[in-house]
Amino acid sequence: MDSRVSELFGGCCRPGGGPAVGGTLKARGAGSSSSCGAKVREDGRNRRGQATPPVLPPEAEDGNIEYKLKLVNPSQYRFEHLVTQMKWRLQEGRGEAVYQIGVEDNGLLVGLAEEEMRASLKTLHRMAEKVGADITVLREREVDYDSDMPRKITEVLVRKVPDNQQFLDLRVAVLGNVDSGKSTLLGVLTQGELDNGRGRARLNLFRHLHEIQSGRTSSISFEILGFNSKGEVVNYSDSRTAEEICESSSKMITFIDLAGHHKYLHTTIFGLTSYCPDCALLLVSANTGIAGTTREHLGLALALKVPFFIVVSKVDLCAKTTVERTVRQLERVLKQPGCHKVPMLVTSEDDAVTAAQQFAQSPNVTPIFTLSSVSGESLDLLKVFLNILPPLTNSKEQEELMQQLTEFQVDEIYTVPEVGTVVGGTLSSGICREGDQLVVGPTDDGCFLELRVCSIQRNRSACRVLRAGQAATLALGDFDRALLRKGMVMVSPEMNPTICSVFEAEIVLLFHATTFRRGFQVTVHVGNVRQTAVVEKIHAKDKLRTGEKAVVRFRFLKHPEYLKVGAKLLFREGVTKGIGHVTDVQAIAAGEAQANMGF
């Protein structure tokens, strides 16, 4: 990653913001041409004055987007072929596909007359019924190229919950400075009621008394927002329970509410590294702009390569000029060399649809929403975006992970009356079922202990099978809670897991006030592992300064950990921060663990 991202952690903006990576991306409106097509003048003609057809990028063989010129009265053989094709697109989109009707395979927007479009949508509905899916018309656009009669193209969302899942799942981490309105926004989205301007909406999200008293989140909490097959919001507004929301939803958004205050930065980093969010929502207050930890949270998302979109909140408190100034400030930061993002301002429902598709296809596109949790202004645009936003990992990656041995990260530990010990976390690979025999560790002496999975719950609903990438809680019966800690893993006994107290990583020092030397102690974050380590050696160098790269050997101070080569690493100590990846681990046997830790 570009070492200039260090400016987002340690320093202020470089004057002028560096060279721009491109202007603010505007969503394509009705009848407009794609940025991927030929250059077109405002009157729709090229340099020679000839009419130029609007185009989309050519259809890709992979992915969940399908172009169809028309689907009028297909033969039975053709219909079966179309159904098979829909199954493939749904598989590629992990339960969601987008059909563009009236578009040729090369991306040319031809359009259809009203009667042909009606017949094509009827055929598409029959195809969806055949595979057990639902369809929702996202938008229609008129195309007036080279035709006297009106012609339209229609964009349709096809959604089907996979047979082996209860619902589609998307995890969104919520970042932003303290008092930017993160918990309030989540309260409005999940409770279905607007805020009163004094924080009433956020009260249901707080977990501790001091959070209610101060109004500041200090822990990690989870909130759910559902969408049914027709794209309608399913939340707690009708006095539903979490189980009822899960049962009524075909798509679930799990929000991971993280702390905004700098004092709780370690908790925020743990949430980003451990809970494996699909994307992040960065909240910025319109009246304060980029302040406090906003720049630092933005740097964390970039460092960990978590795609993010931005929500500018509290627009009801500001004049329009203040909101515009905050948006321009964000655009300047996003275009800096350390970010290389293309901001995309969302101002209409059509923009929200385009933003969701562009965000999934290009890691550089960053949608920006401006809304209010009090007046509800533009809140529906964010809901449209979340409803349409597809899974950001493809089906092939998911299948490859499921073929591997079971590995579950332990992030939370509870004791539940009449249930026993319960652990929460994410299944990194493989499949986990009720009754599976696993081993958990490493303990302080480097051992792995046998246990049995008694039951599984996802979003407070019973679940018999857990698949790679899914988060859940596992009941372990009477297993002694004192033997568990955050950062452990539960794996298949066949894996023969290796542990280490010494490892090497290739790092970039993002920020350090002086020089980074041997003997310096930092808190290391690798996945769900969070522990203090000491720098034992810096290869080929005596010291490091801000922006420099090196291979560094670390030693954990307290107990051995389970690490894998290639895992992303982030370390911090005060204002010192760095990122990198694990390049080598010095595996040790269980009996050697305490000796290697220096005990």
CATH topology descriptor of the largest domain: Rossmann fold
Counting structural domains, the number is: 4
Q: Can you say what the CATH homologous superfamily of the largest domain is?
A: P-loop containing nucleotide triphosphate hydrolases
User: How are the strands of the biggest sheet laid out side by side?
Assistant: 7-6-8-5-9-10-12-11
Under the CATH scheme, which class of the largest domain? Alpha Beta
Distance between the termini: 38 Å
Under the CATH scheme, the architecture of the largest domain is 3-Layer(aba) Sandwich
Total strand segments: 30
Derived from helix and strand composition plus strand pairing, the structural class reads alpha+beta
How much strand?
25-35%
- Give Rg in angstroms: 26 Å
For the sheet with most strands, the description reads: 8 strands, mixed
Low-confidence stretches: 1-5, 10-23, 27-51
Describe the global form: globular
> Count of DSSP helices?
12
Helix content: 10-25%
The average pLDDT value, as a whole number, equals 84
GO molecular function: GTP binding; GTPase activity; translation elongation factor activity
Family: Belongs to the TRAFAC class translation factor GTPase superfamily. Classic translation factor GTPase family. EF-Tu/EF-1A subfamily.
Keywords: GTP-binding, Nucleotide-binding
Protein name: GTP-binding protein 2
Explain what the structure shows.
Helix 1 crosses helix 2 (114-131) and helix 9 (349-361) runs parallel beside helix 10. The chain is an alpha+beta fold. It folds into 4 domains: 65-160, Alba-like domain (Translation Initiation Factor IF3), CATH 3.30.110.20; 168-392, Rossmann fold; 396-491, Elongation Factor Tu (Ef-tu), domain 3, CATH 2.40.30.10; 499-586, Translation factors (Elongation Factor Tu (Ef-tu), domain 3, Beta Barrel), CATH 2.40.30.10. The chain is built from 12 helices and 30 strands. The strands form 6 sheets. An 8-stranded mixed beta sheet has the order 7-6-8-5-9-10-12-11, with helices on both faces. The longest helix has 18 residues, at 114-131.
